[in-house]
Amino acid sequence: MEVRTRLTSNGRVQPGHRGAVPLLDARPGGPAERFAGRLRRRHPAAVFFAALLAGFALLAAISIALGLLVTDVLLQTGGLAHTDESTVKSLVADRTPFLTDASEVGSTVGGAPLLPIMVGALALVCAFLRQWRIAAFAVFVLVVESATYRATSLAVPRERPHVQRLEDLPVDASYPSGHTAAAVAVYVGLVLLLTSRFHSRALRVAAWAGALLIPVFVALARMYRGMHHPLDVAGGLVVGIGALLVLLFACRAAGVAHAARSSKAAALAPSRHAEPVA
Question: Can you tell me the distance from the alpha carbon of 249 to that of 26, in angstroms, rounded to the nearest whole number?
Fold first, then answer.
């Protein structure tokens, strides 16, 4: 994996040597560096997947716990349950042909096949350029999000809003909103990586405006189409942000492992300036 970091004699990342995307560089002494330190002599790919699986397990547990809190505690208070349902009914009551078409666009922007194609294309380009961590981030942030959504929706079944729905999907998979989670994970994630390289403040502001507006558009579209409640959208937001954190952690840990491996190889390599034996 491409990393331009160096390690000091005590195994920590040396400041001032940053990779293609600074955000993917581990903070000296941070959790990613400590995690990689526990897996010494492991290949960077093995460290990446170990961090990925650990992060996914934690995220899925948190998401399921929040889902149970929503369904078994929060919704048992009549006022909140009524508000959650009535918000969707208000959106449905204002349906027009134009808004219905717009909601279809919002669903497409936040779901398949657009997002898998987009991250797949990006991963291929990054792999060609040998930017392996960026490629892994693009692909696996969507994988972690999708897996967490699936695990949560199976463990915490919730009926979709009691309105006319515009899509034929399982009625007991309302929590969380997978489209919202995917939009956050992909669009916010890509802008997070890109803007870490931007020097123009105006460009950063424009990129972040788009990255934040797209998930909002997707969330409103999903509620308008009768597929999710506001609390489901909130759950999707948590899953999307969690997937980002998991991939940042995994990529940083892999970067530390690669830097350690490269440093060891350099130390074992014979010196070019060694004098010939007489």
Answer: 8
In a domain, 94, yes or no: yes
How confident is the model over 43-60, as pLDDT tens digits? 999 999 999 999 999 999
The token pair at 118 is: 């987009």
Q: For position 57, which CATH number holds?
A: 1.20.144
The reply to whether 14 falls in a domain is no
Condensed to tens digits (0 to 9), the pLDDT of residues 237-275 reads: 999 999 999 999 999 999 999 888 777 666 666 555 454
Total domains present in the chain: 1
Structural domain harbouring 217: 42-262
Q: What angle do CA 104, 105, 109 make, to 5 degrees?
A: 120
Owner of token pair 């170990």: 50
Residue at token pair 């105006």 = 202
Distance in angstroms (rounded) separating the CA atoms of residues 25 and 67: 33
Name the token pair of 218.
């997707």
State pTM to two decimals.
Answer: 0.87
